[in-house]
Amino acid sequence: MLRHAELSELSLAHIDCDAFYAAVEKRDNPALRDRPVIVGGGKRGVVSTACYIARIHGVRSAMPMFKALEACPEAVVIKPNMEKYASVGKQVREMMQALTPMVEPLSIDEAFLDLSGTERLHGAPPALVLARFARQVEQEVGISASVGLSYCKFLAKVASDLNKPRGFSVIGKAEAVSFLSGQPVSLIWGVGKAFAATLASDGLRTIGQLQTMERSELMRRYGTMGDRLFHLSRGLDERSVKANSEAKSVSSETTFNTDLSSPDDLVPVLRALSERVSARLKKADIAGRTVVLKLKTADFRIRTRNRQLGDPTRLADRIFHTGLDMLKRELDGTRFRLIGIGVSDLTDAAKADPPDLVDRLSHKRAMAEGAIDSLRAKFGKQAVETGYTFGRGRAGQPQRDQDPDAS
C-alpha cells in the first residue's frame, strides 16, 4: 500500500532498473541468485555494476576491480555483454513507451516519463499505472525496477533512489522543501565530490543551509551553479521531459590487463576502437564534428583531449588519424591503463565527409573504407584488416570493450 495526499496529482516519473547488468546475468543463470555478482572487466578493470549482495560488502560502481575483490573476494565476476544488455534495455524501453510517448532515456536502463493526460487512456492514475508497469517488468522481463514519482525531474530522480531495489517512492510539492532541508548538498544534480568539498569549506553541508541563502549571494559565490543550487534546493525544476532525446556522443574504450606506454601497443587498439565508433555512427546514420581522446593513467588520472574538425565525420580513417595525432602528444613515457576514442557534436550523416580539395587522397581512402565495410558485412568483421591491426591477433584488439556512449 502506498498512500500520499498528492498521489493522484503527480505524473512525472523516473524509472531505473535495479543493478541492471547484474540482474540480467542472475536472470539468465539462476545459480547466481544468492551469490554476490560483479559485472566488470577482470582484475585490471572497474566495476560496471554490482548486485545488492555485493554492495553489502562495500562494492560500488566505478570501483577498481582489485578493490572490489578485496572487499568481496567470493564475488562472481562476469565480463559485460553489451549486446545482451542493450536487447533487454530495448524491451523495457518499449514497455515504457506503451505507457506514454513522453519518454526521455537517460541510459540503457533508466528514463524519465511524463504521464500527464494518460489517465483516460489507461483507466487509472499514473501512480497505479507505474506500479503495474514495475510488476510487468518483473513478470515479463525477469528483472526489477524502482520508480520515483514527483512533480519535477529532479525530485523524481531522487525518489527513485530512495528505496532500491524494487522501490516506489513519492515526493510531493507539500513536503519537498522540508524533505530536502536535511539532505546533503551532494544530492543536488551537478554537485560532485570536488564541488561538495568547496561548499563544505564554505560551511555549506546541507541543502537546508542553501535554502536560507539568497539567489544573488549564491550566484555571486558560485556563478551559474549558484543559480542551480538556489532553485533545486527549493524543489524548483522547470525542465520538461524531452521524448526521443538523442545521444550526445558515440564512443568506445577499453581497459588494459597491464599498463601500456608504447605506441606499438596503443596505436593498434586506438585503430580498432575507431573502427567500432565508425561502425556505430554508420549504423545510426549520424556523424560527429569533434573527436575526443580519453586516457587513464596508471594512477587513475583521466586525460581528455578533443579536436574539432572542419566537417562532421563518420569515417574510421578520420577518427583514427585525428585521435592518433592527439595521442602522440601524450606519449611521454606515461603508462596508461585505459584508452578510448569517440565523437561528439553529432549531426545528420548527410553533412559528413565532403570532398577535401586540399587532401585529394581523402576521397580514395573513403572509397576504400566503404569497400572494407561491404566485405565485413558479407564475410564478418575479421574479413579485412588494416595494416595497423593485421597479424597482431588479440594485441591489436581492445581487451575489454566498454561503451560509455548514448550519453
Automatic annotation (TrEMBL):
Catalytic residues, chain numbering: 110
Protein keywords: Cytoplasm, DNA damage, DNA repair, DNA replication, DNA-binding, DNA-directed DNA polymerase, Magnesium, Metal-binding, Mutator protein, Nucleotidyltransferase, Transferase
Enzyme's top EC category: transferase
Record text on cofactor binding: Binds 2 magnesium ions per subunit.
Keyword 4Fe-4S annotated: no
Superkingdom assignment: Bacteria
Annotated GO CC locations: cytosol
GO MF annotations, alphabetized: damaged DNA binding; DNA-directed DNA polymerase activity; magnesium ion binding
Reaction equations catalysed: DNA(n) + a 2'-deoxyribonucleoside 5'-triphosphate = DNA(n+1) + diphosphate
Reported cofactor(s): Mg(2+)
ATP-binding keyword on record: no
Annotated compartments: Cytoplasm
One GO term of the biological process aspect: SOS response
Function: Poorly processive, error-prone DNA polymerase involved in untargeted mutagenesis. Copies undamaged DNA at stalled replication forks, which arise in vivo from mismatched or misaligned primer ends. These misaligned primers can be extended by PolIV. Exhibits no 3'-5' exonuclease (proofreading) activity. May be involved in translesional synthesis, in conjunction with the beta clamp from PolIII.
Subunit structure: Monomer.
Name assigned to this protein: DNA polymerase IV
Species annotation: Nitratireductor indicus C115
Recorded name of the encoding gene: dinB
